[in-house]
Amino acid sequence: xxxxxxxxxxxxxxxxxxxxxxxxxxxxxxxxxxxxxxxxxxxxxxxxxxxxxxxxxxxxxxxxxxxxxxxxxxxxxxxxxxxxxxxxxxxxxxxxxxxxxxxxxxxxxxxxxxxxxxxxxxxxxxxxxxxxxxxxxxxxxxxxxx
Length: 146
Fold this sequence. Notes:
- By secondary structure, the chain is α/β, with parallel strands linked by helices.
- It has 5 helices and 6 strands.
- The strands form 2 sheets. Strands 5-2-1-6 form a 4-stranded parallel β-sheet, with helices on one face. Strands 3-4 form a two-stranded antiparallel ribbon.
């Protein structure tokens, strides 16, 4: 026990936390790679004062979601599946059709799958904004490009 006596983890106070705005350009990047980068920024795993379950991460603005790529045959084979909770209520949508309808939702759903499935994960998901094109309405926050 004496060996562990001096090793304490630091739990950052609310005044010590800084939540920056970060801009991620997803143009010609692979969907999974850019989504893990977004999830890491949201949780704050890139920061020194990271604590699991505490809001340490940054706010993320994603642009060019409609230009994201998939590797291999995934563009033809990937499907989005959801259920209405009624019998026979399973619905599917191919990736290409999803990108036509709402490319921002495709990126958001991928990031959602990489976050914890708890109240903490749902709170983190409110800190990401995804835009299909290059223009975004969050210029007042002055996000820094990654």
